[in-house]
């Protein structure tokens, strides 16, 4: 699943005419392996294993690229990053269920919510660039 995803990302990059450098690929790999939301500093620590000279700007540049391409989402409320499993549809509205106990994040989509938001935006003559809905609570395995 892991390698398949990287392959898909590589194909998409080729199609878009952009370069997935080794460093960007390494960051993506770290996130895939961890399979959880990570802060830039968590990522930097793990990147340093293979690239000891890596500095905060290194990681922020890689994250910026991955965000721009829609491969990851930024979780503003926890200041973390997660892989987007639906990155081939870059225009989607992402609904994140964030567990306040174990910090697991589940990403969901909803055509209904999407069309409602688009309607509200149109009514307000607002142009949506990107949207992430962050919803906090307790996940299934953390519920008593
Ligand atoms: Zn997404
Ligand atoms: Zn939980």
Automatic annotation (TrEMBL):
<dbReference type="GO" id="GO:0045892">
    <property type="term" value="P:negative regulation of DNA-templated transcription"/>
</dbReference>
<dbReference type="InterPro" id="IPR036390">
    <property type="entry name" value="WH_DNA-bd_sf"/>
</dbReference>
<dbReference type="GO" id="GO:0008270">
    <property type="term" value="F:zinc ion binding"/>
</dbReference>
<keyword id="KW-0804">Transcription</keyword>
<feature type="binding site">
    <location>
        <position position="142"/>
    </location>
    <ligand>
        <name>Zn(2+)</name>
    </ligand>
</feature>
<dbReference type="Pfam" id="PF01475">
    <property type="entry name" value="FUR"/>
</dbReference>
<feature type="binding site">
    <location>
        <position position="114"/>
    </location>
    <ligand>
        <name>Fe cation</name>
    </ligand>
</feature>
<keyword id="KW-0678">Repressor</keyword>
<dbReference type="GO" id="GO:0003700">
    <property type="term" value="F:DNA-binding transcription factor activity"/>
</dbReference>
<comment type="subunit">
    <text>Homodimer.</text>
</comment>
<dbReference type="InterPro" id="IPR036388">
    <property type="entry name" value="WH-like_DNA-bd_sf"/>
</dbReference>
<dbReference type="GO" id="GO:0005829">
    <property type="term" value="C:cytosol"/>
</dbReference>
<dbReference type="GO" id="GO:0000976">
    <property type="term" value="F:transcription cis-regulatory region binding"/>
</dbReference>
<keyword id="KW-0862">Zinc</keyword>
<feature type="binding site">
    <location>
        <position position="99"/>
    </location>
    <ligand>
        <name>Zn(2+)</name>
    </ligand>
</feature>
<keyword id="KW-0805">Transcription regulation</keyword>
<dbReference type="InterPro" id="IPR043135">
    <property type="entry name" value="Fur_C"/>
</dbReference>
<keyword id="KW-0479">Metal-binding</keyword>
<keyword id="KW-0238">DNA-binding</keyword>
<protein>
    <recommendedName>
        <fullName>Ferric uptake regulation protein</fullName>
    </recommendedName>
</protein>
<feature type="binding site">
    <location>
        <position position="139"/>
    </location>
    <ligand>
        <name>Zn(2+)</name>
    </ligand>
</feature>
<keyword id="KW-0963">Cytoplasm</keyword>
<dbReference type="GO" id="GO:1900376">
    <property type="term" value="P:regulation of secondary metabolite biosynthetic process"/>
</dbReference>
<dbReference type="InterPro" id="IPR002481">
    <property type="entry name" value="FUR"/>
</dbReference>
<keyword id="KW-0408">Iron</keyword>
<feature type="binding site">
    <location>
        <position position="102"/>
    </location>
    <ligand>
        <name>Zn(2+)</name>
    </ligand>
</feature>
<comment type="similarity">
    <text>Belongs to the Fur family.</text>
</comment>
């Amino acid at each position: 699943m892991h390698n398949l995803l990287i392959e898909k990302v590589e194909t998409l990059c080729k199609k878009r005419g952009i370069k997935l450098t080794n460093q960007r690929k390494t960051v993506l790999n770290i996130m895939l392996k961890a399979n959880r939301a990570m802060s830039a500093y968590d990522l930097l620590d793990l990147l340093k294993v293979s690239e000891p000279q890596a500095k905060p700007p290194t990681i922020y540049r890689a994250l910026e690229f991955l965000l721009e391409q829609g491969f990851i989402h930024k979780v503003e409320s926890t200041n973390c990053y997660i892989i987007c499993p639906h990155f081939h549809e870059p225009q989607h509205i992402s609904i994140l269920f964030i567990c306040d106990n174990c910090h697991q994040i589940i990403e969901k989509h909803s055509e209904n919510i999407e069309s409602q938001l688009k309607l509200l935006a149109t009514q307000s003559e607002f142009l949506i660039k990107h949207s992430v809905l962050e919803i906090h609570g307790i996940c299934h395995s953390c519920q008593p």
